[in-house]
Every structure is written in C-alpha cells, then in structure tokens.
Amino acid sequence: MIRREFDIAEGDAYNKTLIDRGRAAPEEPELLQDVKISNRPGSAPDRIVLDVEAVDQSTGDFNIAGAIRAPMRAR
Q1: Against a cut of 0.85, is the pTM above it?
Q2: Contacts with 53 (C-beta within 8 Å, 6 or more apart), sequence order
Q3: How confident is the model at residue 14 (pLDDT cuts 50, 70, 90)?
Q4: Is the pLDDT of residue 29 over 80?
Q5: Percentage above 70 pLDDT, the chain
C-alpha cells in the first residue's frame, strides 16, 4: 500500500518533493497513524535506500458475543 503512494520508482533520481508527497498520501485517509522516512547509503555512491516505517491506525472495532443455554427440565 505504501509503495504505490510514491510517484517515484526504483532507479529514479532522488526527489525530496515527491518523497514528501508520498509520505503525506497514506496519512490523508487516516489509515496510518505515523509515517517516518529515512535514507541510508545504497549499493553504489549514486544510490540511496529509503526506509519507510509506518504505524497502522485503528479503523474500527468488531465484536461478536454469544451464549448457549441448555434447556431446563422439570423434575
């Protein structure tokens, strides 16, 4: 889900504006509580690796309850 929000692909030139826009997109529908993006050196001097950390937002609760009762017999 997060990868599709970025307008960049592997091998593209680093563009901070597109990365910031991709970071904001998953937060808009409130599906994610927090998105952090960091980068680190890649496999070559002209490459970087983007690390994306996200925390899921609770979108609701679903509860089911039930009970089974044995029929009562007269004595």
Answers
A1: no
A2: 34, 35, 36, 37, 38
A3: confident
A4: no
A5: 84
Q: Looking at residue 34, what is its pLDDT?
A: 77
Angle 50-22-51 from CA coordinates, rounded to 5°: 15
Q: Which amino acid is at 63?
A: N
d(CA 70, CA 61): 30
The CA–CA distances, whole Å, from 45 to 22, 41, 48, 49 equal 24, 7, 8, 11
Q: Which two tokens stand for residue 67?
A: 């009970």
DSSP label at residue 43:
S
DSSP 10: T
Q: Dihedral angle at the C-alpha atoms of 14, 17, 23, 25, nearest 10 degrees?
A: -130
CA 68 to chain centre: 39
Identify the DSSP state of 34.
Answer: E
